[in-house]
Amino acid sequence: MRQRAWSVSNLPIIRPMGVSSLIFLYLPLLTVLIFAFNKSEDATTWGGFSTRWFSTILDNTDLIRSAKVSLSIAIPCALIAAMIAAGLAIGMGRATGSVQNVLRALVNAPLVLPEIVTSVGTLAFFSQVGIPLRYGSLLFAHVVMCVPFAFLPIRSRLRDFDENIFEAARDLGASSFRVMTKISIPLLIPALLSSGLLSFIISMDDFLTSLFVSGPETTTLPIYIFGLLKLGASPEVNVIAALLLIIPTLGLLVGITWTATRRRSNEARHQ
Amino acid sequence: MRIPVRSKREPGIYGPNAVSFPAYVTGFFLVGMPLVVITIFSFLSRGDFGSGVIRKFTLEAYRTVFFETDLMGNSSFNFTYLHIIGRSVLLAFTVTLICLIVGIPTAIWIALQKKSTQRVLIALVTIPFWVNVLARTYAWMLLLSEGGLFDKLGSPVLLYTSWATFIGLTYAFLPFMVLPIYASAEKLDRSILEAAFDLGASGWRVLIRIVIPMIRFGIFAGIAIVFIPALGAYVQPALLGGNKVMLIGSLINDQFGESRNWPVGSALAVLLLAMTGLILLSTRRRKLEFAS
User: Which of residues B35, B62, B77 is at a domain's end?
Assistant: First the structure.
C-alpha cells in the first residue's frame, strides 16, 4: 500500500506565503537599521559605514526634552495601569453582574475602538469639564488606554491557578483581603511585570491620544518625531527610527528569553 | 445530604471586590463619558470663536455631513463627506482583504511547525507590532521615496500617493491578522488533515474545505481588529499619503484642529463609532453560534 508522508508542503501556497510575509515584515525594519549607519548626507543613498549621525541626536535638545516628557508619562503610567488592572482582575473574581459587565466593557473598549474616536472624545470631555491639558490629564488619558492591555496577562495568570487554592484559604477563615495580599498578589508578580512593560511600551509609542490631549509643555517624543517625519527623510531621522526599533525589540527579547527560561525550569521541576 | 458549597461564581475569590473599583471609575469617567460627550457635541452648535460648542440643540452637524444648501436655500446631497467616508471604507476593506490573503496562509504555516519553531516565528511576527508605529511608517517613507530602494530598483515613486498609504496600513496591520488566526490554527488537529490527504483530497481542497472552516473564528476576529483601526487610521495617510487624499481619520482630526468645527468632528466620530459597532456585532454573533 502506498504511504504518503504528510507534511506542511502538501498544503498549497502556505510556505511561500509565510516566508514572503516574514520578508515583508522585516525588509523595512532592516533598511532602517542599515541606513542609521549611513555616512552620506543623503538619507536614502548609501555612502559607506559611519556612526556619526548617532552623536548628532544627542545634541538635539528638543528631542531629549520630548523623550524626557515621554518617560515622565510612561513610567508612572506603567505603574498605575498595572495596579488598576490587577485590582480589576482580583476584584471582579468570576463575577457576572450586568452593571459590572457594562463597566468592564467600558474599561476594555480602548482595545477595539478606533483611537481617533477615543482621543477626540477625551479632548471634548476634558474641555467640557474644564480640566486643563497638562501633565495629569495626559497621564490619565494614557492610563485608560493601557489598562485593558495590562489586564490581559494578569487575567490569564489568575486563570492558570487552581481555584481550590483560593477556596481553601477562604474555607480556613482567611478574609478576602488576606487572600489578596498573601496569595493573589505574590502569584501575580511576574504578570504584573509584563503588564507594566506592555503599558510602558504603549504609552511611549502613543501618538494620537497625545496629539489631542497634550498641552504646550507636554510635547511627547512621538509628537516631536511626527513633526520631523512630516518634513521627509533625513539622516537624523534614520537614527531616531533605528533607536525606536532597537530599544523595544531588545526589551521584548529579554522578556521572551526570561519567560522561556522560566518555563523550561518549571517543566524541569515538574519532571 | 446536601453540603453547602461556596458558589464558583462568587466574586471575591481572589480578593475584596472593592479593589476593582478604580478600574470601573476610570473606565466610566475616561472612556464612557468621552463617548457620551462627543455624542452630545454632535447635536450642538458650533462655538463662536472656533473651538468648542454652544449649548443649543441642532442637527446642523449631521446635516453638514450629508447635505449641502445652495444660495437659493435648496438642499441636496453633499457628496464631499460621503466620498471621504466611502473612500475610507474601501481602503480599510482592501487592506483587510490583502491582510487576509497574506495572513491566513502565514498563520497556518506557523501553526503547522514544531512547537519550538512556532514560538520563534510568533515572536518574529509580534516584534514589528511593538516597534513604534512612526518608526515603521518611516521605514516605508525611506523605501518608497525618491532615491529610495524601490525607486532604484525601477519602481515608480509611490511616496505621497494612496498606494503608499495602502502599503503602510497593510504592513502595520498584518500582525493583527496573523496572531488571532494563529491562535485558532494552533488547535488544528493534524490527523484530520492527514486523513483527508489519505482519502485523496488535493491540497487546495483540504485548505478550503477543512482548514479554513476550522479556523474561521480566528479569521472573524482578525477581520474586526484589522478593519476597525484601518478605518480610523491617521498616521499612515498623513505621512505616506502626504494627506493628499482625505480620509475619515484626517477629516475628524481637521475638524478638531484647523477647521475648528467640533460638532461636525463629533458627528463624524459618532458615525465612525457606529460603523465600529456594526463590525463588532457582525463578527461577534458568529462567536455565539460557536459557543452554543
Answer: B77
Task: Please give the residue of chain B at the shortest CA–CA distance from A145.
Answer: B31
**Residue B79 pLDDT grade (very low, low, confident, very high; cuts 50, 70, 90):** confident
Q: Are B235 and B218 in contact (CB under 8 A)?
A: no
From chain A residues 149-208, the ones with a CB under 8 A of any chain B CB are 151, 158, 163, 166-167, 170-171, 176-177, 179-181, 183-184, 201, 204-205, 207-208
CATH number at residue B111: 1.10.3720.10
Q: Give the residue from chain B lying closest to A255, CA to CA.
A: B123
Task: Please tell me which residue of chain A has the smallest CA distance to B12.
Answer: A93
Query: For chain A, which residues make up each domain, given as ranges?
Result: 60-232
DSSP B135-161: HHHHHHHHHHSTTSHHHHTT----TTS
pLDDT > 50? residue B66 = yes
Q: Would residue B70 count as lying in a domain?
A: yes
Total domains in the fold of chain B: 2
Residues B125 and B267 in one domain: yes
Chain A residues with CB under 8 Å of B280 CB are: 112
Q: Give the rounded percent of residues in chain A with a pLDDT score beyond 90.
A: 47
Domain co-membership, B87 together with B190: yes
Same domain, residue pair B274 and B153: yes
Question: Is A96 near chain B, with CB under 8 Å?
Answer: yes
Give the pLDDT confidence of B102-157 residue by residue, as tens digits: 999 999 999 999 999 999 999 999 988 888 999 999 999 999 988 888 888 888 88
Q: Name every chain B residue with its beta carbon within 8 A of the beta carbon of A225.
A: 134
Residues spanned by the domain of B70: 17-77
Report the residue of chain A nearest B229, measured CA to CA.
A114
Same domain, B186 and B278: yes
Same structural domain, B137 and B263 = yes
Return d(Cα B246, Cα B237) in angstroms, integer.
8
Mean pLDDT, rounded, of chain B: 87
DSSP B79-116: HHHHHHHHHHHHHHHHHHHHHHHHHHHHHHHHHTS-HH
Pair B198, B272 in one domain: yes
Find how far residue B179's CA is from the centre of its chain.
Answer: 14
Mutation target vs B (from A117, A126, A183; most B CBs, 10 A cutoff): A117
Q: Is the pLDDT of residue B287 over 60?
A: no
Best residue in B30, B114, B145 for a mutation probing chain A (most A CBs within 10 Å): B30
* CB < 8 Å from B in window 211-270 of A: 211-212, 222, 225-226, 229-230, 232-233, 237-238, 240-242, 244-245, 248-249, 252, 256, 260
Distances from the Cα of A240 to the Cα of A48, A247, B59, angstroms: 19, 11, 46
Average pLDDT rounded to a whole number, residues A236-255: 87
Tally: H helices and E strands in chain B: 15, 4
Which residue, B273, B245, B111, is CA-closest to B178?
Answer: B111
Indicate the class that CATH gives domain A60-232: mainly alpha
Question: What is the spatial distance between Cα B262 and Cα A199, in angstroms, rounded to a whole number?
Answer: 30
State which of B77, B93, B109 marks the end of a domain: B77
Mean pLDDT of B29-33: 94
Confirm whether B4 is domain-assigned. Answer: no
Q: Higher confidence at residue B68 or residue A113?
A: A113
Q: Which of B251, B285, B247 is nearest to B267 (CA)?
A: B251
Residue A162 C-alpha, separation from nearest chain B C-alpha, in angstroms = 11
**ipTM score for this prediction:** 0.87
Q: Which is more confidently placed, B178 or B260?
A: B178
- With cut-offs at 50, 70 and 90, classify the pLDDT of residue B75: confident
Whether B141 is covered by a domain: the verdict is yes
Query: What digits encode the pLDDT tens for the residues A23-52?
Result: 999 999 999 999 999 888 887 888 888 888
